[in-house]
């Protein structure tokens, strides 16, 4: 793997705080995308007492060559206690904002939408003041399942486009760019009070013009929030990094995105789709719906 530049090196966390978060997660038998996807920000986020909960996993039904989540294990039946354990973890950690995501569950008729709903409802019962963000897969284009999920009224719906259309066959072979845009468009149409969010990885061979075209496509479906971060190769068996994009370029993309009308653009080498997600509360206060 290519040597990481200095701007991708992270500070060592205070392991006492990290250990406290891990202890809660282990006690309640919960997975996090922070751990399963080898996120570089795990120390910072765990130290701050936050985590992105990974539901219905950790086995995924897709084999995206950029992702470190396991796809070789057989997906298990949904656990009806999982939403209750998630809500208890949110309560114990005292989270003001929680991000709930999942592996792809293409084996389920609704793609797992009903489990997202159960998680939202459980968190609302245990921590009614906590704002909820769901980071969802494309549900295989099952729009009835999307309707069901939106009826639970999460504050934020996040669905990542991940890369530019030209690279989909190589990077996201089981995904569909237009389907992802349609999911975001329908969310805005069906639930106008929900803030929509999407994210892109950089460094896979995309051009600046292609990134800006994705921005335009997302704004065309009235997407509110954009995240941009550097792709990092989890292991030699995953897609290689084509380029380490400079912090200056990420700053430029942030400025361009804001000029195009996004309410918020989080753009830096270490940005991930749920990085500093709690900042959305400030956005909600500034742009209430």
Written account of the structure:
α6 packs across α8 (177-190) and α9 packs parallel to α10. With 289 residues, this protein is of the alpha/beta class. It is globular, with a radius of gyration of 18 Å. The longest helix has 14 residues, at 113-126. An eight-stranded mixed beta sheet has the order 1-2-3-4-5-6-7-8, sandwiched between helices. Helices cover 38% and strands 13% of the residues. It has a single domain, classed as Aldolase class I (TIM Barrel, Alpha-Beta Barrel).
The end-to-end span amounts to: 45 Å
Q: What would you say the CATH architecture is? A: Alpha-Beta Barrel
The chain-level structural class is: alpha/beta
What is the general shape?
globular
Helix content: 25-40%
Q: Please count the helical segments.
A: 11
Strands of the widest sheet, in order across it, are 1-2-3-4-5-6-7-8
Low-confidence stretches: none
Q: Give the SSE string.
A: HEHHEHEHEHEHHEHEHEH
- CATH level-1 class: Alpha Beta
CATH topology: TIM Barrel
């Amino acid at each position: 793997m290519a040597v990481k530049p200095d701007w991708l090196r992270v500070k060592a966390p205070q392991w006492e705080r990290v250990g406290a978060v891990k202890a809660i997660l282990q006690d309640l038998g919960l997975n996090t995308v922070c751990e399963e996807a080898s996120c570089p920000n795990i120390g910072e986020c765990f130290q701050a007492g936050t985590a992105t909960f990974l539901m219905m996993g950790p086995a995924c039904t897709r084999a995206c060559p950029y992702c470190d989540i396991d796809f070789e294990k057989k997906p298990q039946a949904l656990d009806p206690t999982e939403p209750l354990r998630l809500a208890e973890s949110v309560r114990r950690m005292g989270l003001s904002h929680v991000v709930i995501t999942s592996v792809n569950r293409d084996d389920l008729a609704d793609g797992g939408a009903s489990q997202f709903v159960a998680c939202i409802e459980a968190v609302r019962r245990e921590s009614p003041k906590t704002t909820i963000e769901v980071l969802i897969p494309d549900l295989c284009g099952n729009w009835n399942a999307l309707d069901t999920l939106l009826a639970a009224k999460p504050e934020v719906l996040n669905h990542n486009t991940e890369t530019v259309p030209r690279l989909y066959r190589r990077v996201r072979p089981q995904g569909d760019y237009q389907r992802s845009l349609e999911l975001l468009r329908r969310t805005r149409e069906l639930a106008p009070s929900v803030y929509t969010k999407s994210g892109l990885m950089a460094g896979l061979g995309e051009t600046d013009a292609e990134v800006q075209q994705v921005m335009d496509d997302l704004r065309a479906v009235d997407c509110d929030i954009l995240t941009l971060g550097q792709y990092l190769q989890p292991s030699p068996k995953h897609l290689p990094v084509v380029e380490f994009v400079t912090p200056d370029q990420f700053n430029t993309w942030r400025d361009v995105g804001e000029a195009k009308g996004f309410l918020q653009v989080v753009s830096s080498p270490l940005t991930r789709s749920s990085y500093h997600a709690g900042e959305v509360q400030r956005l909600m206060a500034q742009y209430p719906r």
